[in-house]
């Protein structure tokens, strides 16, 4: 059987609600992705495996969570790449390529996951102070790929990461309300181009590494706070086009399955994870928070603050009702239909089940990491960073 070429086209930090297939009101931002989704497998409950770019890619290329690499801290190059999606495909006779902007050199070093013979195609300039001059625009980047892949013999696999390195073109800022949306729209234009060029004979994988918080629960951006695990960060758009399967997968799926999916996408519609984890650490930080998805529930633990939250994401997708909050009176109606007059309250009939789930997830969370592996140096740095001393230092010197 002829091996089909594969393109992995990732879009940095694109929120699920900016993609029309997940939110009709955003169709004008992502008209191409929305159209492609209708011919593809759409994952409706894909859970990011990390909150920062390098962590997500290291995990999804390897099919493993960060804690399984035994990386002591973020960016620790304890080599995970002996076996990963690039080597899988190389073993299957594929040539492998990565096309990135020069500014992505450092994240790639942290990802530390490529094949034995992966060819790197760098675009743009790292040191040009003018980002817009120093970077190829998303459309230029995919045109570059398109032109160069024509010279490559099949079968091949290429990963390109689109990022808003340059200021969005005026036509995008004029048709959207924020710079963020304009950048998403510009990436979508590039996606439309590449899809048209390759749809005849190529499998394509479109997804973002993590999402982006726009002040949900006062959180902003993604992993830089290391405890930013709100839904807009952990829930990611994922669309797989293989020319055969079309439909929506509503199951919970961990992003660590991407490795398996790129290798063989035929089971995409049925794929399912019992548990999914989102790890959250940033450069020179250790694990201060973790999110666990299990059934309809999402549990978030902040180890350092000794705080946790539990949400029923099916009935409360915006994660407003923390089911384990002491501020909520957890009530049921009695057999006469009455309930105690204590406010505020939530009436549910599964509080016992919720308590069992809470205990179960809390136990998993507390045993997830081996904190003894964290070097003292990193512990010290984290302690200082979370203390008042650091705050004062920053105020004085910044
Ligand atoms: Zn990212």
Q: What is the CATH homologous superfamily assignment of the largest domain?
A: Alkaline Phosphatase, subunit A
Query: Stretches where pLDDT falls below 50 for ≥5 residues?
Result: none
Ions, cofactors and other ligands present here are: zinc ion
Shape: globular
| Rg | 22 Å
Helix content class: 25-40%
If you average the pLDDT, what whole number results?
91
Strand content: 15-25%
Separate helix tally: 14
Largest sheet: 8 strands, mixed
By secondary-structure content and strand pairing, the structural class works out as alpha/beta
State the distance separating the first and last CA atoms: 61 Å
Provide the domain count.
2
Total number of beta strands = 16
CATH architecture of the largest domain: 3-Layer(aba) Sandwich
CATH topology name of the largest domain: Alkaline Phosphatase, subunit A
Helices and strands, in order, run as: EHEHHHEHEHHEHHEEEHEEHEEEEEEHHH
Would you kindly provide a written description of the structure presented here, covering whatever features stand out?
The protein has 398 residues and is of the alpha/beta class. It has 2 domains: 5-279, Alkaline Phosphatase, subunit A, CATH 3.40.720.10; 289-397. 31% of the residues lie in helices and 22% in strands. The chain has helices at 31-37, 53-62, 66-69, 85-91, 105-111, 131-134, 138-149, 170-174, 179-198, 231-234, 258-263, 351-366, 376-385, 388-397, and strands at 5-11, 41-47, 95-101, 119-123, 156-162, 202-208, 213-214, 220-221, 238-241, 247-254, 275-280, 289-294, 297-302, 307-312, 329-331, 345-347. The strands form 4 sheets. Strands 4-3-5-1-6-9-2-10 form an 8-stranded mixed β-sheet. Strands 11-12-13-14 form a 4-stranded antiparallel β-sheet, with helices on one face. A hairpin with an 8-residue loop joins β11 (275-280) and β12. α2 packs across α5 (105-111). The chain is globular, with a radius of gyration of 22 Å. Bound molecules: zinc ion. Zinc ion (ZN) binds at residues 12-13, 53, 209-210.
